Amino acid sequence: METRLKTIFWVLVGLTVVIGFLPIHHHFFPWDDVPSVDAVFGIIGTFLLLIIIKFIGSFARKKEDFYD
Amino acid sequence: MIKPIPPGFIFLLGAFLIPLFRGGLKKAYLLLVPVIAFIDILQLKHGTSWVYHFLNYNLILLKVDRLSLVVAYIFVIIAFLGLLYALHVEDDGQHIAAFLYVGSSLGVVFSGDFFSLYAFWEIMAVASVFLIWYRRDKQALDAGFRYIIMHLLGGCCLLAGIAIHVANTGSLDVGQIERGLAWLLILIGFGLNTAFIFIHTWLPDAYPEGTITGSVFMCVYTTKTGVYVLARCFAGTELVAYMGGIMAVYGVIFALMQNDVRRLLSYHIISQVGYMVAGVGIGTELAVNGGIAHVFNHILYKGLLFMCMGSVIYMTGKRKLTQLGGLAKYMPITCITCIIASLSIAGAPGFNGFVSKGMVMLAAAEEHMTILYLLLLLGAVGTFLSFVKLCYFAFFAPNEEIETKEAPINMQLAMILTAFLCVFIGVYPKVLFHVLPYYPLHYHAFAPAHVIGIIQLFMLSGLVFMLFKEHFAPHEGIVLDFDYFYRMAGRGLVKFCFFLNDVRTAIQAGMSDLVTSIIALSKKPLPVPRPIGIGVIFVLALFTISFFISAG
């Protein structure tokens, strides 16, 4: 069941990336003409957030009773 | 025909009648009051009324325009849903606090002058703190004190700003403010309630400590009245727009690190309010409409999220993601409505958040505010990730230790109705567009480029989440925020006060010893003990020096 769901998910990811090549874009920023640019933003954004939370967590994460 | 009254007064006066009712009648009364208030709002005509002359100024208790009306509609709708959710609560105090809170928020919305606005602003702060204290444990008590201290400080800034503004302009009217000290102080006062970064710490500190039902009200009114007054006084201020962008990202970063479910939601309030603040700050018609539409939508989905997590805590007694999991099979209604709220806050097509978030982002793009646009985009990615995490770890992650059942029927009903509104506005946004401040509105919510862009954004960030799931897993413990500095400063102040008290005690003891010695000396002049002699010489020396100084 889980494998099947994962397969469907991968197919959907592939489809959304392919749809990004259709000529329907906004034209506000230079990157808007790049096909599937929002997919790229999704990947970069997730990794960026992951790096930031790992960095902040390295010094800001404390035990539950820290303030007691 | 009866003249409509300021809607806030219906709640403010209605609060005092709550103890008079019992049982089913009380429940009917609690639900009837917001219905009456809604009918009252529908009767309101644009313009000002309920004006009173006071100390050479006009106090305007009812200023009605499209902006105040749209905010009032949603305030009353969520009051009804929140009271439905809280219908099983027997504690009259909680209902009274909620009524006063809703009433004073509506008071702020319809105030046409700064004096009335300030009065309602402070009632809001005092009423809302009781929704925290009614949880009646030490954590809630402490958090409540920190909350009220911050809000009173913000209130002082606001009052000082208003005083300077009135002294400079001679006008009490609520409206755009000239740059200067008054502008800054009022912005800080409003910014504190809106959770501007650095002065946001009261929010994730206090909201998770409120009562189960109280937090549903708290997540709605304080920050949204903040956005409303910003729209009135600071629309088109670039600084405010960029603050919104920073809030959008800051909120999601800290939300992603939380383990306490309601603290996670609280950080998302900061993030989502960031979109509203950004819209107001950009200041174009589309942007302000987007910001206010996001107020409307956010109140629905955030209220729903607090209802869902409140139900989870109410039924399981657990509030940490590390302790939860597997609840989908025990609490299906809560699970489904939580997924709807999560899709709404993430801004998935077909849900209400998609509509308003898209308006703010499009406005930023139209104004070519690249950095702001990228901040809002990163905020959208973080929001999606955060709610994938919340839903997965609360409802689907394996956990054999929890067995529970669905929340009481009134809670379920409130969640279902709120979820319905999230979807309804998501698929039929015109109903919302009709009540926005600027109408007609030229915005196509389901533009193909926007829909495809959002789906791509979510699918790919979801893919990365799936591949690196363990890195997003919740951890035990807390994450320090800027409140660390405030708490340390507070502790430093307490230590300094203790030090001053020690000095006072030492001086007092020394003086007492001196008096005792002089008494002893007067009784038996010789021999004089050495310390007493030194003390006498010291006093005599002091007197001599002061004599010479005064003579000179």
Span of the ends, CA to CA of chain B: 82 Å
Strand content of chain B: under 5%
Q: Please work out how many helical segments of chain B DSSP would assign.
A: 21
Low-confidence stretches of chain A: none
Residues in helix, % of chain A: 55-70%
Widest sheet of chain B: strand order?
1-2
Radius of gyration of chain B: 28 Å
| Portion in strands of chain A | under 5%
Task: For the record, give the distance between the C-alpha atoms at the N and C termini of chain A, rounded to a whole number.
Answer: 47 Å
Principal-axis shape of chain A equals flat
| H/E element order of chain B | HHEEHHHHHHHHHHHHHHHHHEHH
Helix content bin of chain B: over 70%
Q: If helices are DSSP runs of H or I spanning 4 or more residues, what is the number of helices of chain A?
A: 2
Report the major sheet of chain A.
none
Number of domains of chain B: 3
Protein model, in words:
The complex is a heterodimer of chains A (68) and B (552). With 68 residues, chain A is mostly helical. Chain A has helices at residues 2-19, 37-60, and one strand at residues 61-62. Chain A is flat. By secondary structure, chain B is mainly α. Chain B folds into 3 domains: 1-232, no CATH class; 235-481, no CATH class; 485-551. Chain B is built from 21 helices and 3 strands. Chain B has helices at 7-14, 23-43, 66-85, 92-110, 114-133, 138-169, 181-193, 202-206, 214-233, 238-256, 261-282, 285-316, 332-346, 352-366, 370-396, 409-427, 430-433, 448-467, 469-472, 483-523, 530-551, and strands at 47-54, 57-64, 478-479. Chain B has a two-stranded antiparallel ribbon. In chain B, strand 1 (47-54) and strand 2 (57-64) form a beta hairpin. In chain B, helix 6 (138-169) packs antiparallel against helix 7 (181-193), helix 11 (261-282) packs antiparallel against helix 15 (370-396) and helix 13 (332-346) packs antiparallel against helix 15. The longest helix of chain B is centred in the C-terminal third of the chain and has 41 residues, at 483-523. The N and C termini of chain B lie far apart (82 Å). The A-B interface holds A 6, 9, 12-13, 16-17, 19-20, 22, 24-26, 28-29, 36, 38-43, 45-50, 52-54, 56-57, 60-64, 66-67 and B 252-254, 256-257, 362, 365-366, 368, 370, 373, 377-378, 381-382, 385, 447-450, 452-466, 468, 471-472, 475-481, 487. Strand 1 of chain A pairs antiparallel with strand 3 of chain B, so a sheet runs across the interface.
